[in-house]
Structures are given as structure tokens and as C-alpha cells.
């Protein structure tokens, strides 16, 4: 049976993440958006990224606004050669090129994104420049790279020796299967709420390992990989970008929160929408994290194995996400 039909039959009898459609009057909606509980800064990021979260959390503790904190936070992973899904050291596409995607969004709803950029490490910062210094939202490929040089970014070889070795080994069979939590994880999506109550987010990635040349996933697509609305909250995604784009996952989560859903229930519903498009148990992973302006957080994934890291009292704490399977 197609999952869509299955979930349709199950309807509201089971928990919110399987429910489809109606927002108002839903059991998970509250009448008013919650008020902020404390003015401690909040930083939350996909996967296990303690250094990135500590960086952004501590910057905000020191008074740095959320946008600067989020860009400096994700920059830690962009510069981390051991993270094979972000920045330098990332896995290339199937032609051996490392191409990066990133976006940022601030508390005013301004946003910027770069896609399929080569030779630039700090693409989240580049996306911020697109947002602040151009009349555009998206710059791709060579245009984005040339813009980076005009802003003083250095040209950097992104393909590490280790990544080249992995790619050459992959070429032996050239099989492309987006596996769960194996070669496609560690994209960093980060959401920051500063003491002034300003929310910002960023998502930065090399996308799927051994993707087709020119492929762009959800991470730099505003509404899919990231969405921020300072009246409501913010969400970001990791996992198979095609599935996230088809359901506009991060925007969906923020809209559900606008209608009074908790971040947790909203993340569960966004995964439910993806599942409703599948026949049977999907063999790919997607994970969402979200916060609302009250500082409540949520996370949910298709499969076990997804986790998020959040900042609390000077510490970065990694927490396994709940999941549909
Ligand atoms: N979402 C990213 C993409 O599809 C991949 C990831 O999260 O690792 O490009």
C-alpha cells in the first residue's frame, strides 16, 4: 500500500507526525505562541558538533548577535578537515570536484545563499555577503566564486588527500546509493537565539557524496534546508535533500509552530510528510531540528542515528534524536 494511503487511513488516530493537512484546531496546536522563558542564548546544531556549538554559544554569551555567532559557529566545521560533508576535506561529486552549498537567514527575514561553489571554504560567510552586499538571494557556481574573490576570500583546494582516496575507491564501482548515516552525514544546520531575542540560522554542506555534477540539495534552499521567522522560530534540516525539498520541510515546521505546534511536534509532522510520499520504509535518512522564540526545541528523524547538539550553561550537549523507525 502506498504510504500516503496508509497514513491517510490512520488519520489522526495516531500521533501528530502522521497527521496531514489541517493546522488550526489540531490537537498539537496551542492558541498562543509561548513567551520566551529566559534570555540565555540558545544554539542548536545538527549532529555531533560540540566545537561549533560552543563557539556560537560563547560568542552570544559575550554579546555577539546571533547572525555573527551562527556564521562563526558553522565556520568551525567548514574548517574541519575531518568533517567529510562540510567545507575543506568534504567528499567530492562523482567527477572529483568538491562543491559547497550554504545559506544564512537573519531575524529580519533577510537571506542569502550560495550553491555549487568551488575553492572557497567559508561558504556560510559568503552567503552572508550575498545577503548583505548584493540585491540577490542566490549566487551559484563560478558567479559565487568570483564574488568571493571580490570580497577577499582566499582560493583554497578543498579536496583533501583523504577525500581523493575515498573518491578513487568509490570510482571502482561507482555505485550511488544515499545510505543512512554513513557517507552523507554531518551537514551542519545551526540555529541561534541571542539574548536580545534575535534568531538567525545557517546551513552549510558539500551535499551528498558522489552526487552528480551540478546537483544542489536542500541545504542552501531557503524554506527547505533552513527557515527563520523571528515572530515564531526556526528550523533546519539534514539528510537526503531531495526529500526535504519536495516537502519544503523547514518552512513547514516554522508554519506549524506559527499555528501553535511545539517544535517537537512540528519536526515529527515534517518527517511524517516525507514518509507519506514513500512506499514502505525509506532507505534514506532525514533529520530536522527546530526552536521557537520561547527557546523550546525539537528534533526528529526518519531513522535512529540522528543527533543534535545544543548549548547549555557553557557546555555543548549532544542528544540522540527520536525517530520514526
Ligand atoms: N542535506 C544535504 C543535501 O542533500 C546532505 C546532508 O545533510 O548531509 O545536500
Description of the structure:
The chain is 30% helix and 22% strand. It is of the alpha+beta class and 325 residues long. The protein has a single domain, classed as (Glycosyl)asparaginase (Glutamine Phosphoribosylpyrophosphate, subunit 1, domain 1), CATH 3.60.20.30. The strands form 2 sheets. The protein has an 8-stranded mixed β-sheet with strand order 4-3-2-6-5-1-11-12. A 5-stranded mixed β-sheet has the order 7-8-9-10-13, covered by helices on one side. Helix 2 packs antiparallel against helix 3, helix 3 runs antiparallel to helix 4 and helix 8 crosses helix 9. The chain is globular, with a radius of gyration of 19 Å. The site of aspartic acid has 14 residues, from strand 8.
Amino acid at each position: 500500500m502506498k504510504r500516503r494511503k496508509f497514513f491517510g487511513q490512520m488519520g489522526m488516530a495516531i500521533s501528530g507526525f502522521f497527521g496531514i493537512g489541517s493546522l488550526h484546531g489540531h490537537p498539537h496546536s496551542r492558541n498562543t505562541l509561548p513567551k520566551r522563558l529566559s534570555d540565555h542564548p540558545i544554539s542548536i546544531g545538527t549532529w555531533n558538533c560540540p566545537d561549533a556549538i560552543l563557539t556560537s554559544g560563547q560568542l552570544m554569551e559575550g554579546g555577539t548577535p546571533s547572525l555573527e555567532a551562527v556564521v562563526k559557529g558553522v565556520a568551525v566545521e567548514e574548517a574541519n578537515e575531518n568533517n567529510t560533508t562540510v567545507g575543506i576535506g568534504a567528499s567530492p561529486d562523482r567527477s572529483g570536484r568538491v562543491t559547497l552549498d550554504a545559506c544564512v537567514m537573519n531575524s529580519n527575514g533577510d537571506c542569502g545563499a550560495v550553491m555549487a561553489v568551488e575553492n572557497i571554504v567559508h561558504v556560510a560567510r559568503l552567503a552572508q555577503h550575498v545577503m548583505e552586499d548584493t540585491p540577490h538571494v542566490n549566487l551559484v557556481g563560478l558567479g559565487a566564486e568570483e564574488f568571493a574573490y571580490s570580497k577577499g576570500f582566499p582560493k583554497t583546494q578543498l579536496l583533501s588527500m583523504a577525500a581523493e582516496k575515498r573518491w578513487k575507491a568509490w570510482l571502482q564501482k561507482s555505485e550511488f546509493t544515499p545510505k543512512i548515516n554513513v557517507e552523507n552525514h554531518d551537514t551542519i544546520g545551526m540555529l541561534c537565539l541571542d539574548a536580545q531575542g534575535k534568531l538567525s540560522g545557517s546551513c552549510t554542506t558539500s551535499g551528498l557524496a558522489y552526487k552528480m555534477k551540478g546537483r544542489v540539495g536542500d541545504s542552501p534552499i531557503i524554506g527547505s534546508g533552513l527557515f527563520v521567522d523571528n515572530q515564531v522560530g526556526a528550523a533546519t534540516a539534514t539528510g537526503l535533500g531531495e526529500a526535504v525539498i519536495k516537502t519544503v520541510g523547514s518552512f513547514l515546521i516554522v508554519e506549524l509552530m506559527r499555528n501553535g505546534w511545539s517544535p517537537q511536534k512540528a519536526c515529527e509532522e515534517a518527517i511524517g510528510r516525507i514518509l507519506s510520499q514513500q512506499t514502505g520504509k525509506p532507505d534514506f535518512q532525514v533529520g530536522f531540528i527546530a526552536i521557537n522564540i520561547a527557546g523550546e526545541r525539537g528534533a526528529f528523524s526518519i531513522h535512529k542515528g540522528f543527533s543534535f547538539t545544543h548549548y547549555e550553561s557553557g557546555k555543548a550537549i549532544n542528544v540522540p534524536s527520536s525517530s520514526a523507525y
